[in-house]
Design goal:
globular; 14% strand; alpha/beta; 277 residues; five-stranded mixed beta sheet; binds zinc ion; three-stranded antiparallel beta sheet
Amino acid sequence: MITINKDKYYILKSKNGKCYLILLTSKKSKGKKHKKTCLKKSTCTKCQKKCLKKCLKKCKKKSLKDYTKVTIQVPQPQGEKNVPTHMYFYLHKSFTAKQEQRIKGAIRAVLLLWFDHLNEKWDGGTNTGISQLALCTSRYATKNFKPVWAKSSVPNAIAATNLAMNQLTRLIRENGFKKSPPATIDPRNSTTIYATTASIKGRVPLSLQINPKQLDNTDFSDLKVTGSMLHAWLHHAGWKDPKTTNYFISECPMCVMRDLKDKNPQVRDSSFYKFFD
Ligand SMILES: [Zn+2]
């Protein structure tokens, strides 16, 4: 039970994956009893919090019924220990089978980029190699190398790419070993693939919101979906927008969208970053 106003008491209940507040009017006696035993004591806030936490937990558990569990195999990069064999996502049931395939394909493609980067950096054991992704990004990215959680500065785009891919290793591990909250993928009505920027380094769920209409858009090629997915994951890794030319969070996934090739002066950057959120 929780209280909103001084003299109004509510019971918190979960039904069909939603939380409801039920005003305690007809059950006054129960309310008064509870008021005496709990609400007036110093443990009152604690008791309410416990109740709310329990209810929200119940809601969260129930709401996963609206999702399909998607299991993705994780490639094993050289020199990297303790990498889970699989990652798990909870895809909202409203996505079509074709849209589901595109989403799964984009996740696999991002994992492959991460895998290639780590192998190229490992370089047979030196771990000083520069990956194709880092090399391409370094040609164009000049701003915002540092993620929000980093204490020290990041000198250049190669260091930023290495840091981002190492942070992805952490996010992949925590997802695969179920250390972070479940990663849900929900539909959204506008833009493309949305993710919030993580302010912390650990236990960040890889949850996304994806516009299903964009997945059906023929202009949104597989490379573009992969770049858009990487941009969203970079937000999870702690990098911030702006999503325009020169910025790391934009140039790195734009390299992916160009298949790691140099920029073509005939093609405007905006034709790529319009697919970033
Ligand atoms: Zn963004």
